[in-house]
Batch of 4 targets.
Target 1
Amino acid sequence: MSGSTEQNASRRTQAESILTEAAHTARSQEVTDTSGAVLRTDKCTIRFGGLIAVNSLDMAVREGEIYGLIGPNGAGKTTVFNLLTGVYEPTEGEIYFQGKRIDSLRPHQIARRGVSRTFQNIRLFPGMTVLENVLTACHIHSRQSLADAVFRTPRFERDEREQREFCLELLKIFGLERFQNEGGTSLPYGNQRRLEIVRALATRPKLLLLDEPAAGMNPAEQEDLIELIRLVRDRFGLTILLVEHNMKVVMGICERIQVLDYGKPIALGLPEEIRNNPKVIEAYLGD
Amino acid sequence: MKFLKRLLVAVVIGLVLYALNLAMSKEGLFGIGVPLYQVDLWKLAGINVILAVSLNLINGFTGQFSIGHVGFMAVGAYSSTFMTVYYTQGLEQSLAGAVGAGVAAAIVFLLVIIVGAIAAAIAGLIVGIPTLRLRGDYLAIATLGFAEIIRIVIVNTNRIGAATGFRGAVDPWPGRVTIPAYTNFLWIGIFDVVTIVIIYNIVNSDTGRALISIREDELAAQAMGVNTTRYKVTAFVISAALAGVAGALYGHWRLPHPADFTFVRSFEIIIMIVLGGMGSITGAVLGALVITFLPELLRQLPGEVYNYRLVIYAALLILIMITRPQGMLGGREIGFNWLKRAQRRPEGDTAVGADKGVPIAERDAPTADHAKEVENR
Ligand SMILES: Nc1ncnc2c1ncn2[C@@H]1O[C@H](COP(=O)(O)OP(=O)(O)O)[C@@H](O)[C@H]1O
Ligand SMILES: [Mg+2]
C-alpha cells in the first residue's frame, strides 16, 4: 500500500500528501510503541449508574488495518467510540493512542492527537454549507490567528485559500464538491454520511472511527462506501475502526473483527472465524 | 492594490461620517442641520448598534445566552470617565500645546476608549472563565448576576458618583469637575464601522467557524478539535471589549448613571438582536435602529392613540416575532457585497452569495486523478 502511493508520488495531490504525511508520522512513532498497536485499550470499563455499558474491554488496533467492532444493539459499541474520543472518561482502565495515554484528555485534545470520528446519528453542523462543514474541521491545522482574520492579512488570505483547496479536493474524492454551497443537512441521507466522513478526514486524522457509516444507505451506496473506505485507507494510510450493523459491509471490508455483547468482548478474529463462531451466532440470534 | 481599495473605502466612509457629524452639529452642514432631539436619537442608535452587533457574537454566532451585556458597557463607561476625570487632564493640556486642543482631545479620548475596552475585556475574561462551563439558562442567570454586581459596586463607590451618577471629580480629590463631552456622531459612527468590520471579519474566518460550530453542535465541534471553552471565552472577551467601547462613548456624552445600566438595558439589547435575526450582523444593526426609533416614532401618534403607544410598541414587536420568528433577517445578511468586494483579492471570484456564509474561492477544477478514478469506477 505504501508502494503504490510512492509510485504515484508525482501525481499526488495536496490533500493526499498532507494526509499521508500525518499517517507516516503515526507509523514512525509506532515503532517505539512496545505494544505494536496504534490504539490500545486496557481493561476499559464504564458504568452508567448500575449499567456496565463497556466491561473490561481489551482492544489493540494495528497500524493501517480496518478493524471492525460489531455486536447487537445496545452492546456498547457507540460507548466505546465515546470513550476513545474523550466524550466519556472510563470508570476503570486505560486507553493508549500511539503509546500515549489519552483517557483523561478532552475531546478536542484527542482530535488534535489524530483521532477523528463520525456519529451514528449524523451530527453535521446544520446551519453550514457542505464546504463550511468541512472547513470547520480544518480548524486544527489553521495557520491564521485572530489578528490575521481581523486585519485580513496576506497570511489569512493564503490560509483560507489553502484550506478551501484542501477541502474541495477531499469533497471531490467523495463526489460531493458540486454540492459545496448547499446546506449540509439538506443532502440526501447517504451523502450526509459521506460528508461526515469528509469532515472527519479534514482534521487529518491517523485513526478514523466510523459509527455505522452504511446505516440508511441503499445497497448501491453501500458498495460505493466500501470502495471509498478502502480507498481513503490506502491513499492516506489511515487506520480505521468501524462499527457497523450491516454484516455485508462488515464482512466485506474488515480485516479483523471484535464482537461485543452486553459490553463484554466475546470474540476477536478474522471475518470467516467470526462468521462461524458459535458464541457470536448465539449473541445475534438471542438479540 | 487591495490595500488601496480598503483605504479608499475607509476614506469615503470617513468623509460621509464627517459630513453627517457636521450636519448634526450646531453649525450644520451648508445650512442643513438636524434638530437636536433627532441628533440625540441618532447618537443613541449608533451606540446601540455597537452593543447589538457585539452581543450578537455571543448570543447569535456562538449560541450562548448572555444577558449581562450592559455590565460590560458599564465597566467601559465608568473606567473611561474615571480616567478623563482624574488622570488625563494634565496629558491633554500638555498635548494641546504641541498639537492643538482639538487633536489633543481626540488623542486622549481614543486612549480612554481603549482603556474602557480593555477594562471591559478583562471583566469579560473574569466572568467568562468560571461561567462558561454553564449552559443555557444557568449561563444567562450568571451573566445577569454579574451585571448586577457591577451596578451595585458602582452604586457603592463614592469616587465615581455612587447612586447619584458620575459627573466629575468629587471633593476632596482633584480632577475635572465635569466629564468632558468628547463624544460626537463622528466618533460613534467610526466605532460602528470598526465594530461591524471586526465582527464580520471574525465571523468569516477560522475563529468564526469555530464559534458557529459551537452553536450548531457543541459535541461535534469538540470532536473536530475545537476547544469550545476557549472559544466561548474568546467570544465573551471580544464582545465585552466592544461593549466597553460603547460604554466609553456613552459616558462621555450622557454622563454615566447606575440607572442606565440595569438589566432592563441588557434585555433591550437582546430584543434588538432577536428582532433583527440572531447571527446576522445587518440584522443586529436593523434591530438596533428599530428599537431606538420605534418608541420615538410612536410618540408622534395623535391624541387618544398616544396614550396607547407602549401597548402599540409591544404589539408591533410581537407581530414582527410572529410573522418572522427567525427575526427580520433570520441569520442572513443584506447589502454586504460592497464590503466583500473591497476585501476580494484581485483575481478573486464572483461567486459571492448574498446570503450569509464565507465567500467561496472558486478555483479551477482540482485535477485529482484519483477523483476521476472514483467517478469512472
Ligand atoms: N450517557 C449514557 N447514560 C446512560 N446509559 C447510557 C449512556 N450511553 C449509553 N448508555 C447505555 O449503554 C448501553 C450501550 O449503548 P451504545 O453504546 O449506544 O450501544 P450500541 O452502540 O452498541 O448500540 C445501552 O444500554 C445504553 O442505553
Ligand atoms: Mg451505536
Target 2
Amino acid sequence: MNAMTLYRIGRRFRQWGIPVVPRLMDKLVVVLCRCVVPSRCEIGEGTELGYGGIAVVIHERAVVGKKVMIGPCVTLGGRSGIVGVPVIGDDVLIGTGAKVLGDVRVGDRAVIGANAVVLQSVPADAVVAGVPAKIVRIQVHASS
Amino acid sequence: MNPSHEQHSLFSLLTEDVQAKSRWCYDSIHWRSIVKTLLTDGTAAMMWYRLMQWSRRRRLVPLELLFNKLNVICCNCIIGRGTDFGPGLVFIHSTGIVINGQVRGGAHIYLEHQVTIGAERRANPVLGDRVFIGAGAKIVGAVTIGDDVKIGANSVVLDDIPSGMTAVGVPAKVVRVRNEPSMVS
Ligand SMILES: CC(C)(COP(=O)(O)OP(=O)(O)OC[C@H]1O[C@@H](n2cnc3c(N)ncnc32)[C@H](O)[C@@H]1OP(=O)(O)O)[C@@H](O)C(=O)NCCC(=O)NCCS
C-alpha cells in the first residue's frame, strides 16, 4: 500500500469528522511504509513521495502544495525552540535526504538539493543546496 | 564519561526513557502525556533496544538476537547488540537509525530519525550526557562528544565536540557555545 493513498484515506475521514480511521491510517503508514505522514498535515493534490516515501517524516502542522515531488528520507519538521513549521508551495522538488526545518516558506517551483538543510525561506523558482542551504540560482521558466 | 550502566534495572531504564521522551515532547510527565508518548513513533524502538541490552547482560543470546531483529523489522532501526546507552535514551522517530555495536553513550541522549553513529577504521564515537542529534546527522570514527552538545540536522561529525557546544554542517563545525541552561534538568 502506498503511503500517499493511506494518507489520503486518513485525511478524508478526518475531514468528515470520523474518528479512529485517521489514527489507524497514521499507524499503518508508519508500519507498512516506514515513514511518518500524519493525516493532520495538509498535502495538496498530485503530490508524490519518491520510492514509496521511505523514511520521510512530515510534521503534523506542515502544509505542502500541489504536485510537489518529495524524495526519500526528506524531513519537513520543527526546529528546536521554534514553533513554526514549513509551508511548501506548488510544483516544488525536494531532493533526497533534504531537511526543511522551522518556520520557513518554500516558494512555487523551487528546487531543494539532495541533503540540503533549509533554515530560511526560499523564494519561488530558486534552486537551493548545501548545509545550511544557500540559493544556487534562480530558474527562468519559459512561461514566466 | 562512559560509565557502565549496569546498575540500572530494566524497569528503571524503561521508565526513565519514556519520561524523558514525554518531557521532551509534551513538557510534562502527567499520565496522559506518558500514554501519548507510548503511542508515538520511536517509542517501540527504544523499548526493543532496552530489552536487547537487558538480554545481553543476562547472556540470553537468542533473546538478544530476537530483539535486535524486531527492531530492524518493526521499527526500521539497526542498533548493534553491544551498543551501550545510559538512562533517558530517546528516539524522537526511529526510522533509519543506525548505531554500531561498540558505541558508548551517557544519559539523556536524544536522537532524531536517520541518525548514523558508526565506526571508521574500527574506531567508534563516545557520547557524553544530554546530547541532541538532529535528523540525518552522521557521527563517524574516533570522535568524543562532550556533555550538553547539540548536533544539527544532516551534519557530518568527524572531529571531537567539546562540552556545551552546538555543531552543524558538513563537516560539522562548532557554531556556538551554549550558555543557556541545559536542555534537561
Ligand atoms: C542544530 C540545532 C539544534 C541548532 O539549534 P540552536 O542551538 O537553537 O542554534 P541556532 O538555531 O541559533 O543556529 C545557530 C547557527 O547554526 C546554523 N544552523 C542551525 N542548524 C543547522 C543545520 N542543521 N545545518 C547547518 N547550519 C545550521 C544556523 O543557521 C545558525 O547560523 P547563524 O548563526 O549564521 O545564523 C537545530 O538547528 C537543528 O538542526 N535541529 C534539528 C531539528 C530536527 O532534526 N528536526 C526534525 C524534526 S522532525
Target 3
Amino acid sequence: MTTQLFEYAPSSPDSLASTERDDPVHGELMKLNMGPQHPATHGVLQLKIDLDGETMHNIDPVVGFLHRGKEKTCESLGWAKFFPHTDRLDYVQPLMNNIGYALTLEQLAQLEVPERGQIIRVLLMEISRIAAHLIYLGTTAIDLGAVSIFFGTFKERERIYSILDAYTGHRMNNSYVRIGGVFADVDDQVEGMMREFLNSIPASIDGWEGMLTGNRIWYDRNRNVGTITKEQALAWALTGPNLRGAGVALDLRKSQPYSGYEDYDFDIPVGTVGDCYDRYLVRIEEMRQSVLIALQALERLRTTRGGEFLAEDRRYVLPPKDKVHSSMEELIFQFKIVTDLRLPRGEAYHPIESSKGELGFFCVSDGTSSPVRCHIRAPGLYNVQAIPAIAEGRLFSDMVAIIGSLDFVMGEVDR
Amino acid sequence: MVIIKRKELSFIEKLYLPQIFQALSHSFRAMFQPRITRQYPEEPLPTNEVTRGQPRLTLLEDGEHLACVSCGLCEAACPAYAITIDGHETERFIEREPERFEIDMLRCILCGFCEEACPKDAIFMSDELELADFSRAALVYDIDKLKRPREELQGRIDYFYQVNDRWRTPSSTS
Ligand code: SF4
Ligand code: SF4
C-alpha cells in the first residue's frame, strides 16, 4: 500500500477570508435532533431544529414517544377503573388528575359532593400544585445550572410525598379519589403534617427566590427569553401560568369556580412581559397563594370534623363494608357498582386549573358502563405546540430555558 | 389579580459576587443539616397499616381455608387485569371456593380496588412491597404465595374498617 503524502501549503490570507472557508456548509442549515433522550427536554420530547450557527429556525417538536392510548383505554376499561390511569397522565400531580376526572363523572351523574369532601379535594389539589411547581422550579434551575435549588425543592417535595404516603398509602399514583368524594378522611396526624409543611414552606420559597430572582445568571438567561405576547398566548390556546405570565388574568378557579373555590380568598398573579422570567415569578407567587388556600382549607376541615366526605348514592358509590356483610340489598349494590357502573346518557366536560393549565376530561356516555368517547384536554400539549413560535430565531441555549419555563410533562402530552 | 413586580438588578447584584458567597454559604450550611437521603436496601421506608403494598388473601380462623368464595368481584374491579380466578364447588358451608387464584404481581399496580370490592374480607393490601425474582413466571403468585393468616393483616383490616366507620355519619340512611 502506498502512502499518499500531502504537502502542507499555507493558504494565503485571501483564500482564508473567502466564504467557502468561513462557512463550510455553504449557507446550509445544520439539522439538530434534541431528544428524545435529552435530559433537558423533561421527558421524551424530540425537537428537530435547523441551526444557523447558534440561531434556531424551523423548530419541529415531535410528540408521541410516550403514547399509551389512555383515551382508548378509558373507553374499554370503563368509568371507575380509569382512575389509576389518570394518575399516570401528569405524574407529578396524580391527585389533581384524579379530581379532574371525578368532577367530569360527577357532572355527568349530577352528583353532589359533600362539603367535607370538597374541602379535602381543594386541600389535595393545592398540595399537588405546590408539588408540581416544585418540580418545575427544581428541574428548570438544574437545567440552567443551579444545582442547589434542585436539591432544595426535591427535599421539600419529599415532605409532600410523606404526607401523601401517610394519607393514601402511596407516595405517587395515589388513586384516592372516588366518584362522589374521596376514599378516606384526613385524620389528625395527616392534618398535623400538612399544617407543619404549609407553615414552613413559605420560608423555603423565600430562600429560593433570594437565590434566584436577583441572580445575574438566572436573570440573564430568563429575562426577555421566550417572550409570548398576550395575543400569541391566546392564539396558541395556552392556559395556566404560561398565559398568566403573558398578562391575561384567566384562572379557572376564579372564572368558573368548582369544588367551592369561590369561598376561598386568594389572588391570581399576573405577569407583564410574558418571558421566562415572568412565568417563573408567576409560579413562585402561585405557590404562596396555594399555601394560603391550603391553610384556609385546613381551617375549614376543623369546622367540618366528622362530616361526610363521600356522597351517599347507591348508583355510583360503593356501600360501606359492614353493611355489605349484613344486608342482602347492599351486597347487590356492591356487585352492581363493581361490575357494571353505569352513568346516564349525555356528555360532560369539566375543566380544572391544574398546575400546567386547563386540564379537562370530555366524556360522552351512551348509558353503558364505559364511555363512548373520552378526550383529555391536556394543557401540556398546548404548551409544547407553542415552542416553535416562541423559540424561532433565538439562540440554541435559550431552548433549555424555554422548555423548562413552559413546564409540561410528557406523560400528559402524549397520554 | 396581582401584577407581579419584575426585579431590576442593582449594581451590586450585577457584579454577581454577593451571589457567589450567598450560594457558598448555602452549601456550607447544608453540610451540617440532617441527612435526608436513605440507604435504601438497608434502611427501607417505614411501612404501616396505611401502606398499600401487595394484595394478600386472608385465611379463615381454622388457618387452612381461604375466606374467598371466588365471587370474581376483585377480578372485575382490577384495572390492570392482574387477577385470575377459577372457582369450584366445595362441601364447606360457603359452597364455592377458588381452585386457582393468581395475581400477576408484575401487572398489579397496588391500587387497592380489589380490597375495596371484596364482599367477604378475603383480600387485603399487605405492607409487603419488595418484588424481585429471576423469572416472570415466579412473579405470578398463586394461592400458596398469597395466603396469610388473618392476624398478619389485622392492622390493615382494622384500618380499613376504621376508614369505613368514618365513612358515614351514623344518622345517614341508606
Ligand atoms: S391492587 Fe389493583 S391492580 Fe393489584 S390486584 Fe388489586 S385491583 Fe388489581
Ligand atoms: S372479591 Fe373477595 S371473595 Fe370475591 S373472588 Fe375476590 S377475594 Fe374472593
Target 4
Amino acid sequence: MAENGTGIGAAVKRKEDMRFITGAGRYTDDIDQAGQACAVFLRSPHARATIGGIDTGAALQVPGVVAVYTGADLAADGIGDLPCGWLVKSKDGSDMIQPPHPPLAVERVNYVGEPYGLVIADSLQAARDGAEAVVADFDDLPAVVGVATADQADQLHESVPNNQCYDWELGDKVATDAAFANADHVASLDIVNNRLIPNAMEPRAAVGDYDAASGVYTLHTTSQNPHLERLVLAAFVQVAPESRLRVVSPDVGGGFGSKIFVYAEETAVIWAAGKLRRAVKWRAERSESFLADAHGRDHVTKAELALSSDGTFLGLRVKTIANMGAYLSTFASSVPTYLYGTLMAGQYKTPAIYVEVRAMFTNTAPVDAYRGAGRPEATYVVERLVETAARDLSMDLAEIRRRNFIQPEDFPYATPVALTYDTGDYEASLDKALRHIDYQGFGARRAASEANGNRRGIGFSSYIEACGLAPSQVALSLGAGVGLFESAEVRVNVTGSVTVITGSHSHGQGHETTFAQVVSDRLGIPLDDVEVVHGDTARSDYGLGTYGSRSIAVGGSALIRATDKIIAKGKKIVAHNFETTEDNIDFTDGIFAEHESNRSMAFAEVAFAAYVPANFPLDELEPGLSEKAFYDPGNFTYPAGTHICEVEIDGETGVPTIAAFVAVDDFGHVINPMIVEGQVHGGLCQGIGQALLEHGVYDDAGQLVTGSYMDYCMPRADDVPSFTVDTTVTPCTHNPLGVKGCGEAGAIGATAAVMNAVTDALGVKSLPMPATPETVWKALGSAG
Amino acid sequence: MYQFNYRKASSLEHAADLQANAEDGVYLAGGMTLIPTLKQRLAAPSDVIDVGGLDGLRGIDVGATVRVGALTAHAEVAASAEVRGAIPALSDLAEGIGDAHVRNRGTIGGSVANSDPAADYPAAVVGLGATVHTDRRSIVGDDFFTDLFETALDEGEIITSVEFPVPAQAAYAKFPNPASRYAIVGVMVAEVDDAVRVGVTGAGPCAFRSAELEAALAGGLSVSALDGVSVSSGDLNSDLHASAEYRAHLVVVMARRAVAQLT
Ligand SMILES: Cc1cc2nc3c(=O)[nH]c(=O)nc-3n(C[C@H](O)[C@H](O)[C@H](O)COP(=O)(O)OP(=O)(O)OC[C@H]3O[C@@H](n4cnc5c(N)ncnc54)[C@H](O)[C@@H]3O)c2cc1C
C-alpha cells in the first residue's frame, strides 16, 4: 500500500476541510427557501403530565404568527407514530412492547422537552413570542426516573405493564450456571453505565419545503441516513410517498448516532410545509439538543465471571437493566441487545455466556445509539470484570488476558453469543501497547507519584466490536426492519473524471477524501478527478447511511464492486476498439493494455470512447460508462485492540489526570491513516469523557439538571493527554478492501481502561462514573 | 431575546439619565453575562444601556495602588506588565478567567457588579481589600458583595473603577468547575498592610473573607500554618459538582496552594 501519493494507505489531507475551515460549508441552517417561515416547538416543562387542553388563541393573535399546530392536528391528518425499526423478542417469545409514539404528544407528555406542538411564524422572534403565548393545561404526575426501580413505579404507557419493553436473553443459561457451579473463583461487579448526551457540534435542524406544482416535498435535515429518514416518513409516518419526498442531508456537523434517528421535529416541519404550502425552518437551540436529542448508554448491570484458579475464564453471567427513556427511538431496542449481549465474549474463549437484558421505560429523553452503541457498554462490563478478576487472583493484567485470548489459529471463531469472528491477533495489539506504555516502568512511576503524595494507577481494555453494520440476512433474522447493505454508483464522465455517488453519509468522517482515494487508486486516475456525492435521496440509490463504523467496510466495498464493473466494461470497450476479446485486455494504473502487443488506451480515452460509441455492436455493448452496485457483506467486521491508560490522582483534591494513554487498534487495512488517527482521537475523547466528565443527570422530578455546558462537562483538549496511537493489521477476510472500520473504537475501548486505572490507583473495587474529583476524593478517604 | 430599546451612553451622566428614564434599564458592558441571559429570555429589560463607549471607564493606572477602570477587559489586566509587576496574583487571576473570547470582552466592572458566586474577581476584591468606585461613592471591598448575585450597588449606580492596594505578597489558587471552568473554589491569600487577608469565591453565596484561615495564617504565611486547619461547611454551596464538605476541604487546599506559591 502506498505510503505517499494519494492512493489507498496514503495520509491525504481531507478534500472537504478547506470548505469547513473557511466557513464555506453548507449546513441545514445555511439553507433558506423563498418565503420561508420559522418554527418553534412547544416543549413539555413536566416529566410526566396529562394535557388537559392547549389554548392557542392568544398565540394566533401575536403579530407574525402563521399557525399553531398540536398533536391533534397531526393525528387528524393521518400522520402516524414514529416507529422503532428493530423488533426484539422477550424470553417467552413475545414481541417487545412498543408504546404509541406520536411525533407531537397528544394526551400526555412523558419527558421534559417532549414536543407537544409547534408555532410557525414569519420570523423566529414572532414564533418565540407565539410559543410563549400558548397556554397548555398540564396535570402534573409523579415522574418515574430511576431505571432500576422502574418496574415497581407508576405505569407510564397503557400498553406496557411494569414499564417493561422486553426481557431478553442470549446464551446458554444451563451451561453457564454449570460453569459457575464448578468455578474456583467468581469475580463480580455492580456497574452503572452513566447516561450521556451526544452533543454534536451542529444542533439538529430541518427545512421543509413543498412544491405545489409537482407535489414534491423536500426536506433538508441533519440526518446520518437520509434514505432511512425518507423511508420512515413515507412508509410509516406517511407524510408523502417516497417518490414525492426528497430528503437531503447537506454538510452535517457531527452526529455520533444522535442523527440516525427519525425525530418529531423534522416530521412536523415537513408536514407543516405541505399544510401551509410554504417552506418551514427549525433549528434546535443548544438547550433543546440537551433535552430532546436521543441520549446514550444508561444501564444498570450485575456481572459475574467464573474462573478456575489459574485464571481461565469458565463462564460469564450478565444481568442488565437498560433505560429506553420515555419512548422507543428508531433503533433503541437493538442497542442493549444485539449490539451488546453479542459482544460479551470480548477477545476471550469464555465457553459459556448468558446475558439477560430488561429494557424499561422512564420519564426521561429516549435513549438510543451513541458512538459505539451497546459495544462500549459490553466492553465496560467485560473489561472491568477481567481486571477485577485479575486483582482478586493477584494475576498480572496482561497475563490473565493472554491466558484467555482467542488465538490466531482459532479463527473463524464462533462465540457462545451468536457471532463468528473472522480474524484477529489480540496478543499482537496487547504486546505493542505494553511496549508503548512502558509497562515495566510502571512500578517506578507509581512510586514517584506516591512520593509526591499522589496516587497512580494503570488499566487495560482489550476490546472487540462488531462493525460494518450489515449483513442484512443476519440483521433481518434478528428483528431488523431494514436491510443493511450499501449502494454505490461510479459515474465516469465523458472526459474521464469520475462522480462517485454513495448511499453512505459523511458527517465529519471524511468520505469525500477516503472514498475518492479508493476509486482513484483502483482506476489509476488523479484524486482530484474523483468527486464524491452523498446525502441526497434524489441523487443516490437507496442507501443506509453512516453509523456502526460501516462506511468503508460496507459502502467502500460497494464502491469496489461498482469500480470493478467499470473496469470490466472498459475492457469490453477496449477489446472492441482493438478488435480482440476482453480477456486479452489488462487494466493497471489507469491503462487498458492488450497482452503481447504494445497497444493500449488510457482511462480517459476509454471514457470518451464509451460516450462517443463508434461502431459499437449495440446488442452486446451499450454506450456509456456508469455502474452501480449494492453490497451486502457475509459477516460483521471485528475491529479489536488494546488500550492502556495510566492516571495520576491528586492526593489532596482527588483530581484524576490521564498521565498516558496508548491505543493499539486492528482496523484491518487502513485507507487514510491520518483520518483514522483523527477518528481514534475523537473516540478516545468521548470514551474518556464518559469515564471522567460526562453525565446526563435528571433530578427526582425528572428535570434535566445537566441541561447546558455550565453543568454537562464536555471533554476539552486539555482534559486529555497527547495520545499514543498505533495499529496492528489482520485484514478482514470477507470484504474486498480487507477493512474493518474505525469510527467507534476509541469510544468503545477507552472508558474501561480509564476506570480500571482509576480504581487501581485508589485501590477500590469500583467507582461510579464519571469519576469526578469529588467522587475520587471521597474514595481516597474511604480507601485510607 | 425579547425586544428592547438599545441606548448608547455618551457620558456617565447620560448613562444615569437613560437609566432614570427607563422603565427597566440595564447596563451593558462586555455582555458576556448579560447577552446570554437575554438570549435565553431570562431577562426582559425595557432598555439596554450600553456603557461600552465611556472611555473614561477604561484603562489601568498603577501607582501606590492598582486602579482598573470598570470597562477594562480581563485580557488587558492579564497582559499588563505593570499589573504583573505590582500584583502578579491579579494577573494570574485574570488570565484564568473563562476562555480567550470571554477575556477579550468581559470586564472587571461587569464581573464585580454581577456578584456571580463562582466568579474570580470577587476573591481579589475581598482578598486584597479593594475599593469599588462608582459614579456616586466609594465602597469598601469587604462590604461590596452582599449575597448571591447581590451587591451594595444602588439602583442605577455605575461602577467606574476597582482600586486594589499593592500587597506585600499575594497569590490566587483556583479549583475550576470541570464543566464551566468558573471557580468551584478560588482563594486569594494576601499580606496587605501587615495583615493577612484570605478572600474566598465559589464556595459560598458570594465572595467572603475566611476568618478561620486568616486566624491560622496571622502568625505568618507558611503552608504548615494550615496543617490541621479546617473551615466549616455550614454556609457553603452544594451542587452537582461539589458538596459543601468538598468545597470546605478545597478552600483549605487552595489556601495551601496559594501560600505555597509565595514561599
Ligand atoms: C463562557 C464563559 C466563561 C466564563 N468563565 C468565567 C470564569 O472562569 N471566571 C469568571 O470570573 N467569570 C467567567 N465568566 C464571566 C465573565 O467574566 C463575564 O464577562 C463577567 O462576569 C461580566 O462582565 P461583562 O463585562 O461581560 O458584563 P455584562 O455581561 O455586560 O454585564 C453583567 C452585569 O453587570 C452589570 N454591569 C456591567 N458593567 C457595569 C458597571 N460598570 N457598573 C454597574 N453595573 C455593570 C450589567 O448591567 C449586568 O447586569 C465567563 C463567561 C462566559 C460567557
